[in-house]
Each structure stands twice: as structure tokens, then as C-alpha cells.
Amino acid sequence: MPPCADLVAALTGSRPSDGFVHALIARAAAGVAESNRIIRTLITLAHAVSCDETPIRVGPRKVKRYLLVACAHLYTWYLLGDRSLDTFEMFVLPDLTGVIVHDRYQNYDAKIFAHLVHQLCVAHLIRDCQDAAETYPEAHWPVQIRQALQGLVHAANLARAQKLPAIAAPIAGPLIGAYRHGVRIGLKDLARVSGRKQPKHRALLEDLRDREADILRFTTDLWIPPTSNQAERDLRPAKTQQKISGRLTSDKVTEHRYAIRGYVSTVTKHGADVMTAIRDAILGRPWIPPTWAPG
Fold this sequence. Notes:
The protein is an alpha/beta fold. The chain folds into 2 domains: 32-118 and 228-282, Nucleotidyltransferase, domain 5; 122-219, no CATH class. It is built from 12 helices and 5 strands. A 5-stranded mixed β-sheet has the order 3-2-1-4-5.
């Protein structure tokens, strides 16, 4: 916390103690607790929710933990834990009522979350197809699938700008046809191997075939984002902090930090003044997100 104390000293001419700054963080985290409870509830009711996770180092021994984020257009909520199913059960997944947008990490598809409706992140799939194109430079299918997915995302953006509910069939049809054709060719080129576990590009192709509805869901419902980019953006401050400052001092400080961070992110998304919202939280009257706003 010395940099924060130094900043206060530079602005006011008086340097607070590190303990005072730590106490304010705990106080602010307590102050935003009710707002975060409401934010979590609103996320579980949102039409589409993007989820992601990133490793962070915590404590004097730099223990590897995972920071999970669930977010929508107007809301952000964090949970500190690991990549176990126990953590994911404490996450928002059991309570989600809308579509979950994610990167195909296996826990999102666990049987205990069978109620979830999925949108697989198309940006991740495009990157996987690019990797396949570099691995098999003579093959046409990775390029064809990638271009079809990119075309569908572009068409969705254009249709959304026109306030349409879905991509028009004459536009989506040829692109989906190219996608399916590329998948069929790829499956012929890369035969299955013995055993349950398949090479990564064969597994990719099987997902592209078997989970087509989860990949193309955004084409028929433009309220669903085709990528989990929002979640990645909401995790970026954590990655930046790790690069600049290294580990956080403890689990408790980390939980406090991201309780505040989720509150600040949501305030920002609503266009409210962040400094006022933080001050009000410390004074016991935190900003509360409007419950009527669409997620």
C-alpha cells in the first residue's frame, strides 16, 4: 500500500500510515457488500452473462489462486478461489437464468450445471482455427471455418446496429453452410485415434460439429454476445496489477480489493462518478445499481 499512501501525501502534503490505508480498504469492501449482493443477483437474472477466470499470485508464498469474473453489459462481479468445481459451485453458475458465454473450460459443462444454456466464445474458436491453420498449412478447412465465424460475427454486429433481432437468413445461411462444410472436411482429414482423448484439433472439430447450437446461438439472438471479450476486459486490471505490483498480500486483502473493483466496474458501466461512489460507500451510503436496467 505504500504507493497509495505516497499518492495521498503528494496530493495533500500529509502521508497516512499504511495501516490506515489497509483499514480503509476493508471499510470500503464492507461498504460495498450490499451493492455487490444486488449486482450478483442482477447478473444471475441477465439475458447473457460472460464468464472467465485468470490465475493470480496471493500471499507471501505466492500461492496460485484464480480470480473468476461474471459480467454483463452493466454489471461486474468477482470471486476469488481456484478452478475446482467447489469454487464454481460458489460462483454464479448455479443461479444463472440466462445464457452463459465462456471459453469451453470443462467446469462450465459439468453435470451439476446441466441447466445452463451456453454460447461458446467464438473469439477462442477463431484462435483455435488459426492455430490449426498453422499446424496444417496445406489444409483449407481451418481457414474456411475461421472465415465463416468471422463473417457471422461481422454480420451480427451489422444486424445489431440496425436493431434487428437476428442475422437475416439470406446472410447467415451461406456462412453457416461454409462453416459446416469446413467441419466435415476437417473431420475427414483428421481421423479419430483410439481412446477417449483426442488430439486437440480433432477435439476442436468434434466440438464444432457437436456443439454447433452453442456456437451459433448468437446468430439467432443478437442480445447474446458471440465472445467472452467483456469478461476478459474485466479481468485485465488483475493481470495489469500482477505485472506491475506482483502478488497481493493475502486472500482477505485480495477479496476486499475485488469486492471494491466489481463495485467500481459496475459504477463505471452505468456512467456514474466513481470517486463519489467510493466516498459514499465508505460513508455507509453506497451507490446501488438500478434494478430496472437490462443486463
